[in-house]
Design a protein that fits this description.
The protein is mainly β and about 280 residues long. It is built from 4 helices and 20 strands.
């Protein structure tokens, strides 16, 4: 079965953002309290040699209070007032990805397809016939992972194929809580939009294609494995999650400017630079 760990959860009062440029002109930006934090060690505390150790991570409890602009090419993080970023994205000619809140973690997910899938139709506005899988946006993950159920959707061989024995591997946390070697392969990923309604029920379902000037993300080494995080995020609390899914990490997200729009319901939007 899946292994879980218990950590201390504390409430934080009188928390403010500091050391930035705020519209109020003040040096501090107070956040609505209380906030909640887990007290634990985490691998990312050594991610930045200039600030080692990093002493905390901002979770979605904080980020959901803003439209969050991860401008990776410019090395800037911008926190916009909620529901104001659409005009910013339009001015920057960014594309819109339809997303959904996954669960109480407030992480966002969107439909992922391999970059090799070609749309039907020209100059955008076409459709994609490929079956997508849910990709969860995780800005705390240094590399991207898909589970074995998603592998065939990406044109990859099954888990027992001998070719995986020769593949480079990375270390992830296995179902028993111990380090687990995960094979990797170079993959280019893209996205698709909402399902396209068809009057002919005999035709396979298709999805809205990205605009014609969209360029898929550059290929990166993606790990393949059934990590506990998939059940933690997508399971029903009783049985392991067996559906196709992936974690979209910083190796993909940091390639471009990315904006996460906040909202009250489960439906959300992600804005991203087209190339």
């Amino acid at each position: 079965g899946e292994v879980s760990q218990t950590q201390s959860l504390i409430e934080l009062e009188d928390v403010s953002l500091c050391c930035g440029t705020f519209s109020s002109g003040e040096s501090l930006f107070p956040l609505k309290s209380p906030l909640h934090a887990i007290v634990t060690d985490f691998p990312q505390e050594h991610i930045d040699p200039a600030h080692d150790p990093v002493e905390g991570m901002l979770g979605m409890e904080v980020l959901q209070k803003f439209d969050v602009d991860f401008d990776f090419p410019a090395g800037r993080l911008r926190l916009w007032k909620p529901h104001t970023v659409e005009a910013v994205a339009k001015k920057a000619d960014m594309t819109t990805i339809e997303a959904v809140v996954v669960n109480e973690t407030l992480l966002l997910g969107f439909r992922v397809v391999p970059s090799s899938v070609a749309p039907s139709g020209d100059n955008g506005g076409g459709t994609l016939a490929a079956q997508p899988f849910l990709g969860v946006v995780d800005c705390g993950a240094s590399f991207s992972v898909v589970n074995w159920a998603a592998a065939p959707l990406l044109g990859l061989p099954p888990q027992n194929d001998s070719t995986w024995k020769k593949s480079p591997a990375v270390t992830g946390l296995g179902v028993d809580g111990r380090p687990q070697l995960l094979p990797t392969t170079s993959l280019g990923l893209s996205y698709c939009g909402n399902p396209v309604a068809r009057s002919d029920k005999s035709v396979a379902i298709s999805f809205e294609a990205p605009p014609g000037d969209w360029k898929p993300w550059k290929p990166v080494p993606v790990a393949i494995g059934d990590l506990p995080v998939f059940t933690q995020l997508l399971g029903d609390g009783r049985t392991p999650y067996r559906g196709p899914a992936g974690i979209v990490g910083l190796d993909i997200l940091s390639q471009r400017r990315l904006i996460l729009e906040t909202g009250a319901g489960r439906q959300r939007r992600i804005f991203i630079s087209k190339k």
